[in-house]
Amino acid sequence: MNRFYGTGVAMVTPFQPDGQVDYSALERLINHLIEGGVEYLVSLGTTGESATLSKDEKKQVFAFTAKTVNKRVALVAGIAGNNTLEVVAEIKAFDTTGYDAILSASPHYNKPTQEGIYQHYKAIAEASPLPVILYNVPSRTGTSVSAETTVRLAKEFKNIIGIKEASGNFDLMNQLMRDKPEDFLLISGDDPITLPMVAMGGVGVISVTGNALPKQVSDMVRLCLAGDFKGAQAGNYSLIEFTRLMFAEGSPAGVKTALKQLGVCGDTLRLPLVQVSEATAGKIAEQIELIG
């Protein structure tokens, strides 16, 4: 599980102007992130616009990513949905070659009870050949995974190894840190609060901002994990405005704009997502120049 200490990046999926997956750009992105010093990558999470990819496209992106990464860093596959049977079938059919874990967001739209969330993840844990990282992101799903449910899952299923926590609820996280098994991982799912989450016992972040600025994010997180929070503050403060802009007009529109300006990939998105405004793109360019 030490493979998931530090900075993971929830990768965007680059598209060509006509909307097809841009595999040359995906290769550039993967190398950009690894050379930037991140510890692991996440393929086809929410930031990867997974909801807009077909099953065949997902299969191709997963395989291409594993081949390109070539075990240089740990690799996580995003597999989630609000139909438990479909998610389980997708996990059972998944080619695990090159992958180290599965990241699965709690069901969206259905708004299940805590028992429903537990049963959903129970089915995933029993089906998965890889370790599972839970993902709590109530701003997108409509419901929050409670600390009690997370701890229950962590204690009952040894292959549920951690949670990407993006609720922003520090009361929940305090309770989780107090009650969880010692080796269960708390991972920030929200760039702006990574530093305080590590201070309370978290092991790092699965970052959106890190797509564009992998070195800056991973350097800051490593200082946090070393206990040098004073040293980490300068890097954290320098990223505040840039990170705000990454989400100002929706994610991953902001970070795709930054990646285009950095020459890594284009800024094409699939509907219903659209590109950021010229005004926001200009502000992002200013921040990139400022950060250097």
Automatic annotation (TrEMBL):
| Site description Part of a proton relay during catalysis, residues in chain | 46, 109
Residues annotated as binding pyruvate are 47, 206
Q: Which SUPFAM superfamilies match?
A: Aldolase (SSF51569)
One of the record's GO cellular component terms: cytosol
Localization, UniProt: Cytoplasm
Pathway(s)? Amino-acid biosynthesis; L-lysine biosynthesis via DAP pathway; (S)-tetrahydrodipicolinate from L-aspartate: step 3/4
Tell me the InterPro entries matching this sequence: Aldolase_TIM (IPR013785), DapA (IPR005263), DapA-like (IPR002220), Schiff_base-form_aldolases_AS (IPR020625)
Question: What keywords appear on the UniProt entry?
Answer: Amino-acid biosynthesis, Cytoplasm, Diaminopimelate biosynthesis, Lyase, Lysine biosynthesis, Schiff base
| Gene Ontology terms for molecular function | 4-hydroxy-tetrahydrodipicolinate synthase activity
> EC number(s) on record?
4.3.3.7
Q: Name one Pfam family in it.
A: DHDPS
The keyword Flavoprotein is assigned to this record: no
Its primary localisation, in coarse terms, equals cytoplasm
Q: Which GO terms describe its biological process?
A: diaminopimelate biosynthetic process; lysine biosynthetic process via diaminopimelate
Regarding protein family, the annotation reads:
Belongs to the DapA family.
- Protein function: Catalyzes the condensation of (S)-aspartate-beta-semialdehyde [(S)-ASA] and pyruvate to 4-hydroxy-tetrahydrodipicolinate (HTPA).
Q: How does it assemble?
A: Homotetramer; dimer of dimers.
Its name, as the record gives it, is 4-hydroxy-tetrahydrodipicolinate synthase
Q: Which organism is it from?
A: Mucilaginibacter pedocola
